[in-house]
């Protein structure tokens, strides 16, 4: 996962800079402020990935293609298309590993689905789904998710209407669907644009909504 985060952030900065150089300090800051990183790792107030971690990851991904001078990382003979292809390759590899892990625990999942308490649990999850969606749709920026994003960079199209037709297996899965909506919108919009800022703002709205629903469940 570290490689994906580093590569995704690096790609975004290179596109923005329109050059083959990136500030190491800015790269580290952007990586450690990444939404996915902040959600995967509990907040400790410390940097999630150190400069050493980032440099080692870059060396592993681009052997003999980089140099570091006065805090600036320079990449040699690196095309953005190559970088994008490598990013997709890592995505697909991670996806395959996750699919295999799910396949391994599928028998256990089936047992849970056959349990006599499943119907009651399903009703509770559907209630949570509708409550969370209704609350989120009251927010200012929820209008961003009334339709699915269509773009080459977005692998799965999701909108609030589509989520309302799905039955989540857990609150975490429901949260992941909504998080994917926000992530898709952020990737789709140009960095710094009005749409991008709105998508970033909706992240806070989603966090508030999830916190509200969790407090009700508790």
UniProtKB/TrEMBL annotation:
It comes from the Eukaryota. InterPro entries: EAF5 (IPR026226). This is LAFE_0F11628g1_1.
């Amino acid at each position: 996962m570290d490689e994906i985060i580093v590569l995704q952030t690096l790609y975004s900065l290179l596109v923005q800079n329109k050059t083959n150089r990136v500030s190491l300090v800015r790269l580290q800051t952007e990586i450690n402020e990444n939404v996915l990183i902040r959600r995967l790792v509990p907040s400790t107030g410390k940097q999630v990935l150190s400069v050493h971690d980032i440099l080692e990851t870059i060396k592993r991904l681009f052997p003999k293609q980089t140099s570091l001078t006065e805090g600036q990382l320079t990449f040699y003979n690196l095309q953005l298309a190559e970088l994008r292809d490598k990013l997709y390759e890592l995505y697909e590899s991670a996806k395959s590993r996750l699919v295999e892990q799910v396949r391994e625990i599928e028998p256990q999942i089936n047992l849970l689905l056959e349990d006599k308490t499943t119907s009651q649990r399903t009703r509770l999850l559907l209630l949570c789904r509708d409550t969370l969606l209704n609350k989120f749709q009251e927010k200012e920026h929820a209008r961003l998710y009334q339709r699915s994003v269509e773009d080459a960079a977005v692998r799965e199209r999701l909108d609030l209407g589509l989520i309302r037709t799905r039955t989540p297996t857990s609150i975490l899965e429901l949260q992941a669907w909504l998080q994917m909506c926000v992530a898709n919108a952020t990737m789709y919009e140009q960095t710094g644009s009005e749409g991008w800022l709105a998508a970033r703002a909706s992240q806070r709205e989603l966090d508030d909504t999830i916190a509200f629903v969790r407090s009700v469940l508790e």
